[in-house]
TrEMBL record:
UniProt keyword annotations, A-Z: Membrane, NAD, Oxidoreductase, Transmembrane, Transmembrane helix
Gene: LOC108744232
Protein name (database record): L-lactate dehydrogenase-like
The keyword Glycoprotein belongs to this UniProt entry's keyword annotation: no
Source organism of the structure: Agrilus planipennis
Residue ranges annotated for the Lactate/malate dehydrogenase C-terminal domain, each copy included: 167-335
Binding positions for NAD(+) per the UniProt entry: 31-36, 56, 117
One GO BP: lactate metabolic process
Pfam families: Ldh_1_C, Ldh_1_N
UniProt-listed PANTHER family: L-2-HYDROXYCARBOXYLATE DEHYDROGENASE (NAD(P)(+)), L-LACTATE DEHYDROGENASE
Gene3D superfamilies registered for this protein in UniProt: Lactate dehydrogenase/glycoside hydrolase, family 4, C-terminal, NAD(P)-binding Rossmann-like Domain
Superkingdom, taxonomy of origin: Eukaryota
Similarity annotation: Belongs to the LDH/MDH superfamily.
Transmembrane segments: 27-44
């Protein structure tokens, strides 16, 4: 039966009743910095939303960005654009994207960065919950897996409605570089990177296919240290390029905006596309529901995105090495989370 295949293929996350059709396409972006503004322009120029709200603490910054966007609005079918410091203007947003956060310093560890951003998110999340209690929240704040977890805990939203940008951009680059080396279109490549973004991310070489042909069946050592063709240089190149861009510009605003526009579009248009985003898992439950620990963590896995956020998590057939690396990341996330104080003060709780 088809139902048996579906259950074997995907972990069910979102109740069918939670999917909503004929919704408004209002999008709120929190943070008018380089990333937030790049995302706003991308969503508007791609005509993904007819109503966009940009919110920030700095009225001067908002004024300048708002005037700039309004000047170009006539070329974008005149969408409704609001720039404000007032969260009430975000009311009934379909998607809320959090880009604001303290920048992680070179000499700072993830625990310290998470603690600083937890304090920022404590101020933001209660306002989101109050004004848009049915929204899907997409987190870009770094470290994204920890911050997605923080938003989930603070909001008390169902886990399927809080997701992080995760490894979506890395996975797109992974497909592109594999396609380039083979001389084919990226559309012919199925490949993804999972786990946590950056150097510790996990390229799933065991699942890379070209038009259905698994590369591991051709080259059993692909992506390993024993690979005579050194395919794993692709993953190293992705990490190196990302670090290089950040060291020069301080951010990956333009490329991240493209990735986030794709995620936002999937939610607004209920496309049910599969993308690797940071989502709630317990240990590695997507591999085997009867195995692994029960740590509540966020990590990137291939997810089916719909109007309710994450509908399903795809059950990948990972190698033991890939499973172990994913579990190590889950353990690391859990350790960092255990050191966070996520108690809301009365001031924030009553927002």
């Amino acid at each position: 039966m088809l139902t048996t295949t579906v259950k074997a293929l995907m972990t069910y996350v979102c109740p069918s009743a939670a999917r909503r059709k004929n919704r408004r396409d209002k999008v709120t972006i929190i943070g008018a910095g380089s990333v937030g503004v790049a995302l706003a322009y991308t969503l508007l120029t791609q005509k993904k939303t007819s109503e966009l709200v940009l919110i920030d603490k700095s009225e001067e910054q908002l004024q300048g960005e708002h005037m700039d966007m309004i000047q170009g609005a006539m070329f974008m079918e005149s969408p409704r654009i609001t720039s404000t410091t007032d969260y009430h203007k975000t009311v009934d947003s379909c998607v809320v994207i959090i880009t604001v956060g303290a920048v992680m310093q070179e000499d700072e560890n993830e625990m310290d960065a998470a603690k600083r951003n937890a304090e920022i998110l404590k101020e933001i999340v209660p306002a989101i919950v109050k004004e848009s209690p049915e929204a899907v929240v997409v987190v870009m704040t770094q470290p994204v897996d920890i911050c997605s977890y923080i938003v989930w805990k603070l909001s008390k939203f169902p886990a399927h409605r809080v997701i992080g940008s995760g490894t979506c951009l890395q996975s797109a680059n992974f497909k592109s570089l594999i396609a380039e080396r083979l001389g084919v279109s990226p559309s012919a490549v199925q490949a993804c990177i999972i786990g946590e973004p950056g150097q510790k991310s996990i390229p799933v070489w065991s699942g890379v296919t070209i038009c259905g042909v698994r590369l591991k069946d051709i080259n059993a050592d692909i992506g390993t240290d024993e690979d005579p063709e050194d395919w794993n240089y692709i993953h190293k190149e992705i990490v190196k390029n990302s670090n290089c861009i950040k060291s020069i510009k301080g951010h990956e605003a333009l490329s991240m905006a493209q990735a986030m526009a794709k995620i936002t579009s999937a939610i607004l248009e209920d496309t049910r596309e599969c993308m690797p985003v940071s989502t709630h898992i317990r240990g590695c439950r997507h591999k085997d529901s009867d195995a692994g620990d029960r740590k509540d963590v966020y990590l990137s896995l291939p997810c089916i995105l719909s109007s309710c956020g994450v509908s399903y998590i795809v059950r990948q057939q990972l190698t033991e090495k890939e499973k172990n690396l994913l579990q190590k990341s889950a353990d690391k996330m859990n350790e960092i989370q255990s050191g966070l104080d996520l108690t809301l003060s009365e001031m924030y709780a009553n927002k």
